[in-house]
Design brief:
Distance between the termini of chain A: 50 Å
Radius of gyration of chain A: 31 Å
Structural class of chain A: mainly alpha
Number of domains of chain B: 2
Order of helices and strands of chain B: HHEEEHEHHEEHHHHEHEEEEEHEEH
Helix content of chain B: 25-40%
Structural class of chain B: alpha/beta
Shape of chain B: globular
Strand content of chain A: 5-15%
Radius of gyration of chain B: 23 Å
Oligomer: heterodimer
Number of strands of chain B: 14
Strand content of chain B: 5-15%
Distance between the termini of chain B: 44 Å
Number of domains of chain A: 3
Chain lengths: ~700, ~425
């Protein structure tokens, strides 16, 4: 066949598929198929493909999915009008297409038998794998709308056993200023609901299982679930399955790794240029989170650390910030660990909080004036020589000196929140600071952690910015912040318990979909957040990288070892972050949804490898599975977005396969593989992949 | 809005079609070269701004407004320049002194914000930070106003060389600075497949994006779409050659001082030549000079700055671009007149200077005045609002332009600032 013949022949086939082929066309088609072997093969491949695609497009969105799967397809409701109605309603287009697909398949089966002597493609033997024959007639989709609660197994959100809180009051709501011990989650739900009522908004409906599962994995494990995990969860009928997932994730090593990532970024930033052993710090944090050590203890070890960078991981926090007379260490301790912005009061009284004078800054600074950073020759892991940096406390410390705006020199001695410490050779100032930071029944240290964790899980803090707490910036829900802080302190800073509680709130299970009744809840527009839905959170660079690895199994396809993966991640991150040259050791990032990030996703090595289909990649495994093309697309979608493809996506996919066959003259088999790779690329490049919804 | 169809056929595509057409294309080719010649004229008349950013806050009292005889005066002497008699600058800026008839110094900036982040925000946006709204950095404002009028521009209208971090705010990610490193390397711009394949992928992406947008989860999806459109355009554009400073002759690079900073400025000139209306160049030196301010200035900071900016002014003039290109050089604040115990200067926003010129603004002038110790302003004082209003005026962006923040609040361009009279008359 010449290219022109081929083009003409494909036009005829297209027309046939669209049921607009006239008599003359039919005759032409018949003649070619009868006389030309190449045309015959093309005819079979093409019709087989379109038969399957039609089959799945008609069935896939609405009918053939078992109930639970249809339920997870939470976006289908909006696109539904575009779909042919379910078979039961008997609307003509749907039935005709369906019938056409069936006829095409039957015809093809016959052809295939004739041509290939019994080696007909397996797809013809029945409907695609996993779809019981006849299921479509028996089961109409339940209710249609996936956000409809009735279609979902109800999750008991306040399950005392699951939350680990001993309930004394049962299910009775007990509002009021005093929080009944043990029903903190109910209290939070109640206070949030009261604020909704007051503001005249309604909460969004409960999140579908697929939405929630992806969310909880990103929040607690730092990456998306793989396709198998999604499938298993959707099939699971256990009404307490969500609580079980939270429990499982809290105890997996990924929880500690993820939280160590979050906190090492806060403590020393991501830019690789700093002169510290960042890995040792991460290792220290991971170990603390893994053993669920009290947060006050972790902070104490960071603040009071002694020793060399590689021997005591905690020392790297201060090794990074003791430059410039410990001004960065002071500012970072306030901003990161206490969520207070006092860096401007190093030169003058805080512009708004008049009580925060210069002495507040310099009195904290004085705690660091007993410590030297000592450099000495040492060995690195490969036996080479390198400069080792070490924190060493002197027996006696100096005061801090500062200058007022009027040019008067002042002296500051260590003092934290008005409490001075004794001076003497036995006193280690930083150990004293660690003690003072966690003393009292509601220390700012605890409130700051609660505020940060709330922001991490719910997309917004009680204050905006999250690290600017103080009398000038009252929290949105003071009573919730206060109750959580109190509970956190009483539990001896038990981080896992706190996460468990927040994941048990009603809010954590709400959809992120905006409904007309909560459009007014718009922190994007500068309004105070009401938390009437889960806010969409952009993925961090690490979440994105780890999710890319999770979906593409690039970690298993390329060079294998874990340390190589870690190196690769560092290298990948380094393209987004660089240090700013100022005394707060700040840094700047292009990981902000702008062009460089888009280019990384479109053309970067990792994505290119993922869509290459090379052996060992997830795409390769999907392509070589003997399942229908639509099932392949579905697997790609599950592994990236944790949901079913929408009808819109199915239609676009079908269109793409056609185009690839037509325009590019590709063989049908390679056209579908190409289109699947393109679809995979599209899923990885989508907004939805880049956010935690 | 469709992802896969480019907003305008790029020149390269047009050319490839033309050459495929063979003989019939002859007429079209000559027509095209005519168009091109015309386009070069048009581009010369196109307004632009180059912002040279001295991150950390430069000690302008040692650079543009010296105080000989004062206890705050420091180690450097002022020298005469090609500008007005009272426009004297630091002795370590000799090349720049020769071209100061083109540039002016505003010596009475008073900007309140003396914290790095707040100052950087204020000087870039003309608004003080506010937790309920993110204001656009001025480069994004220029991109928003001028990009739609430059159909032939295929690369982003706001490019930041060696920097980053500034936010387009409520104007949207499509107007974010496109950040490139000091060498102009654009990572991942090679698509590794052909255009047809890219279009196929974008077509599929469109379906996925539409599905997400329909799910009603806010406007993040819309911004994403715009950014991808830009990426597609950029990946297939010949204008990317503007980033290739190595294409310049060695003499040109020497004229800018043969430094990394000089190369960044050459890139800025090439970008302006291509039609980019706003380029920010981040000076690679750290200016947060709490210690040893004079040594640092004398040995590294000033010599590089001197040759670089003088080279830029001369080169822009040689290309006929200077009359349409505003050059601004500043950081987030100045530094304390008083010299501290570490022979450094600390943060100071009450009285400091900015270098500005080109784009039709008056050159050679010293505008505003500080007292003998550099502490108090003895003339009208200026805010970033006034500075950016001056730039807007030079770029012919109407000063009554009002943008809308996400919560519907009207935001006047340059926060309602007034152009600095002595620069525009």
């Amino acid at each position: 066949m010449t290219p022109r013949d081929r083009e003409h022949f494909l036009t005829l086939l297209d027309a046939l598929c669209d049921e607009r082929l006239d008599e003359a066309g039919h005759a032409q088609l018949e003649e070619r198929v009868a006389t030309d072997g190449e045309a015959r093969t093309l005819y079979i491949d093409y019709l087989l493909l379109h038969g399957c695609l039609h089959w799945d497009a008609v069935e896939g969105g609405a009918v053939a999915l078992p109930g639970t799967l249809a339920a997870l397809q939470d976006d289908s409701a909006l696109s539904r009008p575009a779909l042919p109605a379910p078979v039961a309603s008997g609307r003509a287009p749907g039935r005709r297409r369906w019938a056409f697909a069936g006829v095409a398949c039957a015809l093809l089966a016959a052809c295939a038998l004739w041509l290939r002597n019994g080696e007909g493609p397996q797809q013809l033997a029945g409907p695609p794998e996993g779809r019981p024959e006849g299921a479509n007639e028996l089961e109409a989709p339940p209710g249609g709308d996936a956000d409809d609660d009735s279609a979902l197994p109800r999750v008991r959100l306040r399950d005392p056993a699951a939350t680990g809180i001993a309930s004394t009051t049962g299910d009775d709501p007990a509002p009021g200023p005093a929080v009944p011990r043990g029903d903190l989650v109910a209290f939070i739900d109640d206070r949030l609901a009261a604020a909704w009522t007051e503001a005249g908004v309604q909460p969004s409906p409960e999140a579908a299982d697929s939405e929630w599962l992806r969310r909880v994995h990103l929040d607690l494990a730092g990456r998306i679930p793989d396709a198998a995990t999604v499938e298993a969860f959707l099939q699971d009928k256990n009404p307490r399955k969500r609580a079980a997932v939270v429990e499982r994730l809290l105890n997996e090593p990924t929880f500690a790794t993820h939280f160590a990532t979050v906190w090492s970024n806060l403590l020393v930033g991501r830019a690789p240029e700093r002169d510290i052993d960042r890995d040792a710090l991460v290792q220290f944090l991971r170990d603390q989170f893994h053993r669920n050590r009290p947060w006050s203890e972790t902070v104490g070890e960071l603040v009071a650390a002694e020793g060399a960078d590689h021997e005591n991981g905690a020392a790297n926090f201060l090794l990074a910030h003791l430059n410039n007379e410990a001004v960065p260490a002071t500012a970072v301790t306030f901003r990161i660990l206490l969520c207070q912005q006092v860096q401007c009061s190093q030169c003058h009284v805080h512009p708004v909080v008049k009580d925060w004078g210069q002495e507040k800054f310099w009195q904290l600074n004085a705690f660091f004036q007993q410590t030297d950073v000592v450099e000495r020759e040492g060995r690195d892991a490969d036996g080479g020589s390198r400069m080792v940096r070490e924190l060493v406390s002197r027996p006696v410390g100096d005061p801090s000196y500062y200058e007022t705006l009027g040019g008067v020199m002042r002296v500051a001695w260590p003092k934290f929140e008005g409490q001075a410490i004794e001076e003497g050779p036995e006193v280690n100032r930083r150990r004293e600071l660690a003690r003072l930071m966690s003393s009292g029944d509601r220390p700012q240290l605890a409130a700051a952690f609660v505020n940060r964790l709330w922001a991490q899980l719910f997309g917004r803090g009680f204050t905006a910015p999250v690290d600017d707490m103080g009398p000038h910036n009252p929290p949105t829900h003071p009573e919730i912040l206060d109750a959580l802080t109190e509970e956190f302190v009483q539990s001896d800073y038990d981080i896992r318990a706190l996460v468990r509680q927040l994941c048990s709130t009603r809010l954590y299970h709400l959809s992120s979909r905006i409904i007309p009744d909560n459009e007014a809840d718009a922190p994007d527009r500068g309004e105070r957040p009401l938390f009437a839905r889960m806010y969409v959170k952009p993925l961090t660079a690490e979440q994105l990288f780890d999710s890319l690895l999770a979906t593409t199994t690039a970690d298993r396809s390329g060079v294998g070892s874990w340390s190589e993966v870690v190196e690769r991640r560092k290298h990948w991150l380094s393209q987004f972050y660089s240090v700013l040259d100022n005394e707060e050791n700040g840094e700047t990032s292009t990981f902000d949804g702008s062009l460089p990030q888009a280019l990384v996703m479109m053309n970067g090595e990792l994505v290119q490898e993922a869509v290459s289909g090379r052996p060992g990649t997830y795409l390769n495994a999907v392509l070589s599975a003997s399942v229908s093309e639509t099932e392949k697309l579905r697997r790609l979608c599950l592994s990236t977005l944790s949901r079913e493809p929408t009808p819109l996506e199915l239609a676009a996919f079908r269109q793409a396969v056609r185009q690839a066959t037509r325009m590019r003259g590709a063989a049908v088999q390679s056209a579908t593989s190409e289109s699947l790779a393109d679809a995979y690329w599209a899923y990885l490049n989508s907004t939805e992949f880049l956010v935690n919804r | 809005m469709s992802l896969r169809i480019p907003s305008g056929m790029s020149r390269r595509h047009f050319l490839s079609h033309v050459s495929a057409g063979g003989a019939a294309a002859l007429g079209a080719t000559s027509f095209l070269s005519h168009l091109e010649a015309h386009a070069a004229d048009v581009q010369k008349a196109q307004k632009a701004c180059i912002l040279i950013w001295l991150g950390g806050g430069a000690p302008t009292i040692d650079m543009w407004d010296l105080k000989p005889g004062s206890k705050n005066g420091g180690e450097f002497k002022p020298i005469a320049t090609a500008g007005d008699r009272d426009l004297q600058i630091c002795e370590h800026l000799p090349e720049l002194a020769k071209v100061m008839d083109n540039m002016s110094v505003v010596r009475s900036m008073s900007t309140r914000e003396a914290d790095h982040n707040r100052g950087t925000y204020f000087m870039h946006t003309a608004y003080v930070p506010n937790p309920t709204v993110v204001h656009p950095t001025f480069g994004s404002v220029v991109s928003y106003e001028l990009a739609p009028k430059r159909k032939e521009l295929e690369i982003p209208a706001f490019i930041s060389i060696g920097g980053g971090g500034m936010d387009p705010g409520f104007l949207g990610m499509a107007h974010a600075p496109f950040v490139v490193d000091a060498q102009g390397r654009i990572q991942n711009a090679d698509m590794g497949s052909d255009l047809a394949r890219l279009n196929q992928r974008l077509q599929m992406l469109e379906a996925v994006e539409d599905s997400f947008i329909r799910s009603n989860r806010g406007d993040i999806g819309k911004a994403h779409k715009e950014v991808y459109q830009k990426a597609r355009e950029l990946m297939t554009s010949e204008q990317m050659a503007a980033f290739r400073v190595e294409q310049e002759r060695p003499e040109v690079r020497q004229a800018y001082g043969s430094t990394g900073f000089g190369n960044m400025l050459i890139m800025a000139r090439r970008l302006v030549q291509t039609g980019v209306p706003f380029v920010e160049v981040r000076n690679p030196n750290g200016w947060d000079l709490h210690n040893d301010v004079f040594d640092s200035l004398r040995t590294t900071h000033l010599p590089q700055l001197d040759k670089g900016i003088a080279g830029l002014v001369n080169d822009l003039k040689a290309h006929g671009l200077f009359e349409n290109t505003v050059v601004v050089c500043m950081g987030e604040f100045g530094r304390t007149p008083r010299i501290n115990q570490n022979v450094g200067r600390d943060h100071w926003a009450q009285s400091w200077s900015v270098l500005i010129g080109g784009g039709g603004l008056a050159g050679g002038r010293a505008i505003g005045k500080t007292d003998a110790d550099g502490i108090r302003i003895e003339s009208d004082s200026y805010l970033p609002n006034d500075l950016w209003a001056t730039v807007a005026h030079a770029l012919r962006i109407p000063l009554d332009t009002v943008h809308q923040s996400k919560n519907g609040r009207p935001m006047r361009i340059a926060n309602g600032g007034t152009p600095i009279k002595d620069l525009i008359s």
